[in-house]
Amino acid sequence: MLDGTWYCDGWDPHLKILHRVRATLFDDTSPFQRIQVLDTHGFGRMLVIDGLPQAAESDEGVYARAFTWPPMLARLEHGGRTTQDPQTPSGTRVLITGGGDGHVAREALRFPHVTRVVVCDIDPLVTKATRELMPFMWGDAANDARLTVRHEDAMAYLAALPPASVDVVISDITDPSGEGSASHHLYSDEYVRRIKRALTPGGVCVAQAQELSVRDASYHERIRALLGGAFAHLRFSAVYVPSFGYPEGFVYASDDPAALTVPSAVVTERLRAAGLAGDPLFDAAVYEAMFVLPPVIRHPSGRAL
User: Fold this and answer.
1) CA 15 → CA 191, 209, 220, distances in Å?
2) Which CATH number describes the domain made up of 60-298?
3) Lowest CB count within 10 Å: 56, 137, 142, 246, which one?
């Protein structure tokens, strides 16, 4: 909601974050959700959907790299070749469900072994608003021939995919905000089953999994349970996103445990091979730190995470 020159991020009934706003640059409602682009004093331009912050200019790269780079690094070896066949280029194919704001696609396309990225987001207004008012979200991806953007329901798109046709699925859908919201039907066993069907053997699914902290890990547990019902191996991480006001959690899932863990020294090698060494927001130390969680978060329900 907006109150004069302040935007109130009220994701929790007992905790509010106020952002001082210079200007409202965009405010419209699509058939699916309300979309706003705000120019804030603290974080620059901010995308807000149905009252919840999605990305902000000053720290969106933290979220996008933490989300996208681990599965990309797991597939990158020896200049972009797979571990299964070191003589054959990997040709990694990526599907992003949601992600119509572009920055996850941008980060996936920074890896040269990625041959195709499809963004499947139901709402074209998100893409229009961010391309026009937050072009930093898209960066070079907007003109990359490897990128396809489709505006359709992710559930239907997954159903139409041939089996084993995608190597990485990144679920960047909006938080569940109740019946009738754009992503409500995607928080389901059927959605996860369709993802698994589309993945190649040993492929990886990664999902944004909301807050993961000692204050609240309840929504994260729900997403963990959904993915755990379909995949043999899970891994969990968190990275603090200042504009969100909490550590954002991620769940990585695969039937191949090697696809979820990259040793620190290998992370450094693969970043160098991809031309991404020296990045200001991500290196091997950040990668390792993302997966260091306190016991109460590793075992929030008495079950090992």
Assistant:
1) 31, 19, 18
2) 3.40.50.150
3) 142
Which class would CATH give 2-54?
A: mainly beta
The span from the CA of 4 to the CA of 261, in Å, is 47
- In angstroms, the CA 230 to CA 256 distance is 13
Start-end ranges of CATH 2.30.140.10 in the chain? 2-54
| C-alpha R_g of the chain | 18
Average pLDDT over the chain, rounded to an integer: 90
pLDDT at residue 283, as a whole number: 98
With beta carbons less than 8 A apart as the criterion, state whether 67 and 206 touch: yes
Measured distance CA(219)–CA(87) in Å, rounded: 42
Q: Are 58 and 44 in contact (CB under 8 A)?
A: yes
* Comma-separated ranges of CATH 3.40.50.150 domains in the chain: 60-298
Please report the pLDDT score of residue 77 as a whole number.
55
Q: Using CA atoms, how far apart are residues 252 and 67, in angstroms rounded to an integer?
A: 9
| The predicted structure's pLDDT at residue 90 | 57
Contacts of 57 (CB under 8 A, 6+ apart): 43, 44, 45, 46, 134, 136
pLDDT-based confidence at 177, cuts 50/70/90?
Answer: low
Phi, psi of 219 (to 5 degrees): -70, -35
- Between strands 52-56 and 92-98, the pairing is unpaired
Our measurement of the distance from residue 191's CA atom to the centroid of its chain's CA atoms, rounded to an integer in Å, reads 16
pLDDT score recorded for residue 11:
74
Q: For residue 254, give the nearest of 198, 190, 196, 172 by alpha carbon.
A: 196
Q: At what angle do helices 218-228 and 189-198 cross, to 10 degrees?
A: 50
pTM for the complete prediction? 0.92
Handedness of CA 163, 199, 96, 270 (dihedral sign): negative
